[in-house]
Amino acid sequence: MQHYRDSRKIDPSIKRRADGTPDDDNRIEIGPTPLAFAEWEQAGLTPPNLESMRQYRLNRIIEGLIKRDLDAVLLFDPLNIRYASDTTNMQVWNTHNPFRACLVCADGYMVVYEYKNAPFLCAFNPLVREVRSGASMFYFTKGDRTQDAAKKFVKDVETVLTARIGKGRRLAVDKIMIHGYEALKEAGFTVAEGEELMEHCRAIKGAEEIRAMRCAMHACEQAVAVMEAEAKPGMTEDAIWAYLHAENIKRGGEWIETRLLASGPRTYPWFQECGPRIVQNNEILAFDTDLIGVYGMCSDISRTWFLGDGKPSQQMIEDYRLAVAHIEENTALVAPGVTMRDLSFKGHQLPDNYLAARYSCRFHGVGLCDEWPHIDYPQDFVEGAFDYELKTGMTLCVEALIARDGGPFSIKLENQLLVTEDGVENLTNYPWDKRLLGG
Fold first, then answer.
1. 279 Cβ partners below 8 Å, 6+ apart?
2. Helices 194-203 and 50-67 sit at what angle, rounded to 10 degrees?
3. Residues spanned by the domain of 223
4. Which CATH number covers residue 196?
5. 280: helix, coil or strand?
6. Angle, in degrees to the nearest 10, between helices 146-165 and 178-186
7. What distance in Å separates the CA atoms of residue 32 and residue 215, rounded to the nearest whole number?
8. Residue 176 sits in the same domain as residue 253
9. 47 within a domain of the structure (yes/no)
10. Angle at 274 between CA 270 and CA 279, to 5 degrees
């Protein structure tokens, strides 16, 4: 079957934005706002070429399938669907109601199973060769006929694969509802691990993805700067946190994955969620952005600020300086060829009285969200879980959660990094808090 997408060319008469997309505010494709583009131009940043970025990502998946001798991968995770197709539809809702899927064959043929009333959402990307529907296999929508829906969906997948690759039945799957998995097995598919495939595909960023991440980081830091300028004693945590959400959306960002902002005694233990507490004079405010920004790229940085008209305590200054040392010394470990084991066992180690409150990891990968790998502290290291080396093009976050046993507060810092050919580049430009450094 010949598809229009196979032969269509980019119309030179259409005015385009810096990322190669149509300069049309009425378009379906989501993306950065004029505010973001203006800020990037002023900062000297080059937006990504999205056509090239999408092709690079598809090529990564094809290479991953061929390397593993797989016929196709079937994706349900919204972030994996975004990586493969760069299409979106109600992303957060989709995380707990999996109504979308994406099938990528080893020959590059891609089918998106979209919400039946919205096939037009994929029309902007010619790499999506077909749009179908029917991937909903969860109880809310199908009730006691969910098993039937799963069998119908698998039959449709089988039809596509037969047309593309004949009798191939080696199918990788990332996340699938139980009835869907059973239907695949009943149909004779060999189901392989799709999550491992996609995490490794996503781990190495191409040139355009790195440009996208630089732009996303800049937009995030502009939003953080507004939040810092507005944050004052007497405000609730929620009121302060709202600025980050609003400024992210103003620039075309998408959502924030957590509610990790806390003040004063609520910073210990860490992971208390943002709430109605009123920030008092001369307290610390700590947060973790966990922000999904422009182009769907994650900007994951953490900062701790001192708010008030007084001075930080000596304990605050000591712990903040320890956090900065932890970040900077561990950043210096990062380079191509460094083992992930070394990221755990070398570099800056926490004093004994800070170990109980340590963070869940020293480093983690980052891209469209928190990604593989997850680098533990020595005390949590699992032999054989991450026997790999860093490669050029990987992006990581380096973490520090500094809190003494028993509190009374935590210092949270985090930077986002790029593994370069000759070492590491810190993609994070947001400054440390001068007062907490003792300035």
1. 231, 232, 233, 234, 235, 236, 237, 240, 263, 264, 285, 307
2. 130
3. 204-426
4. 3.40.350.10
5. coil
6. 50
7. 10
8. no
9. yes
10. 95
Place of tokens 């008209």: 309
Residue 350 · residue 335 · CB < 8 Å: no
* pLDDT, tens digit only, all 439 positions of the chain: 334 344 444 566 789 999 999 999 899 999 999 999 999 999 999 999 999 999 999 999 999 999 999 999 999 999 999 999 999 999 999 999 999 999 999 999 999 999 999 999 999 999 999 999 999 999 999 999 999 999 999 999 999 999 998 887 899 999 999 999 999 999 999 999 999 999 999 999 999 999 999 999 999 999 999 999 999 999 999 999 999 999 999 999 999 999 999 999 999 999 999 999 999 999 999 999 999 999 999 999 999 999 999 999 999 999 999 999 999 999 999 999 999 999 999 999 999 999 999 999 999 999 999 999 999 999 999 999 999 999 999 999 999 999 999 999 999 999 999 999 999 999 999 999 999 999 8
State how beta strands 190-193 and 170-173 pair: parallel
Whether the bond into 32 is cis, omega within 30 of 0: no
CA distance 144 to 168: 31
What gap in Å lies between CA 356 and CA 373, rounded to an integer? 23
Q: Give a three-class secondary structure readout of 330-395.
A: HHCCCCCCCEHHHHHHCCCCCCHHHCCCCCCCCEEEECCCEEEEEECCHHHCCCCCCCCECCCCEE
Query: Cα torsion at 258, 80, 417, 421 (round to 10°)?
Result: 180
Tokens of 434: 């001068």
- Is 197 found in the same domain as 249? no
If asked whether residues 210 and 189 sit together in one domain, one would say no
* Both structure tokens of 405: 């046993």
